Amino acid sequence: MTLTAGIHDGVPEHIYHSDPAPVPSLSRSIARKLIESSPAHAYATHPRLGGGLPTGPSASDDAMDVWTAAHSLFLEGSDIVVHIPFDSYRTNAAKEMRDIALANGKVPLKTAQYDAARRVVESLERFRHRTGLFTDGKPEQTLVWDEGDHYGRCRIDWLPDDPSAPLLDMKSTGGLATIETWGRRAFEFGADIQASMYPRGCEFLRGEPPDGMLFVVVETNPPYGIRVFGLDPIAVEVGDAKAAAARALWVQCMKQHLGREMAGQDTAAAWPGYAQETEWILPPPWVVRQWEAAKVGGYGRAVEDTAFIERMIAAGQWGG
Question: Which residue range(s) make up the domain with 222?
Fold first, then answer.
C-alpha cells in the first residue's frame, strides 16, 4: 500500500510501520536514531532501507499486551483482544488458543491481563467524561506530508477536529504517572522530537499549527491513575532543534543513498556509523563526591598504601 500526502484514516498499524509513503520517509523513531545513535542505526532499522518489516502482535510481554489491548479498545472500540481463560500457557489448550489469536492478528490475553485491560479502559472512559479530551476528533490518524526534499510520516493517537487544538498522545507506565518518573522517560523515547514533528506535519496538511502536543500517561496497575503532561517551551525548542538536525541529516544521507543506488553501489555506505575518534569520559559528579567522601574517611590513602588494601581485604572490608 502506498499513501499520498494527506491525512489517512483506518490504516492498519503494521502498514504504517512498514512506511507506506511514496518514498522512504522520516518518522520520529528514525529521526531519533539519526541524531542520538548514527545514520547507520537509522538505515538498519528503517523498513524501506536496511530494516525488516513489522511482524505483528506478539504474546511475549504481559504488561505491553495489556496496554496494546486497552489502547485499541479505548481509541477505536475495535476488539482486537482474545481472552485466553487460563492463568498461563503451560497447557496445550492455552497454547493453541494463543497461536490461533496471533495468526489472526489479535492480542491474546490471559485472564489476569484481560481483566486489567478492561479496568484500564474503564479508567480512561471516566477520564474522557471528566475532562472532555478524546471526544471531538479521530483516533489513530496516519499523516504523510511532502516537505519538498523529503517525506515525513507520523501516526497520531487522537487528532482533534479543531486544527488549533493540541494533539493527544497516549503512553502507559507500570510505575507512577508522576512528573519526576515520567519526565525522565519522556526524553528517553524522544517526546521532544515527537512534539516538534507531529505538529509540523499537521501544519503542512491542515495549514494551521496545533497548540502543541499533550501526553496522556496511564498507569497500568491499580488504581489506574491518569495524568496529562505538556512540554515546557524550552523542551519544545530543543525538540525543534533536534528535529531540524535530523531532517538535514536524512536529506543528506538519502541523496547519497539514491546516488549510490543509481550507480549500482552499496547503499549502506551512504549511512555512516559512529565517529572513530577516541572519546574521553569525564567522571559524573557523584563519582567525584564519592571519592572525596572516601578520602575523608581515610580510604584515600589506599591509593598509595598497598599494605592497607591487603589488610582491608583480609578483614573482609573490601571485596577480594
Answer: 6-253
